[in-house]
Amino acid sequence: GLGPAVRDGGGEKARQGGFAAVSLDVVDTKHAARRLYEPVGFDPIRTVDVRPFNRLFGFGAATEMALRIRD
After folding, report:
1. Are 31 and 60 in contact (CB under 8 A)?
2. 3-state DSSP call for residue 71?
3. What is the model's pTM?
4. Listed residue (33, 9, 16, 34) closest to 70, CA to CA
5. CA angle 13-19-20, nearest 5°?
6. Cβ(37)–Cβ(69) under 8 Å?
7. Helix (H, G, I), strand (E, B), or coil: what is residue 28?
8. What is the tens place of the pLDDT at every residue in 25-34?
9. Residue 3: which of 47, 44, 37 has the closest Cα?
10. Can you tell me the distance from the alpha carbon of 63 to that of 51, in angstroms, rounded to the nearest whole number?
11. Sequence-distant (≥ 6) Cβ neighbours of residue 51 within 8 angstroms
């Protein structure tokens, strides 16, 4: 899937491209995705509650996570 590619190569590609960070959103129903990103340095930035639209979207909240590439 896309998750391991971002985890394993996203930071290096971003560094080569001159970016300061890589960010992504993880929905609250994808616990495995969050466990994939946190150990390699992605930190939660903010969580957005999407209720009452959770039936439409299929999840109740989304957390933005970021990997700082450089200061």
Report:
1. no
2. coil
3. 0.78
4. 16
5. 120
6. no
7. coil
8. 999 999 888 8
9. 37
10. 14
11. 60, 61
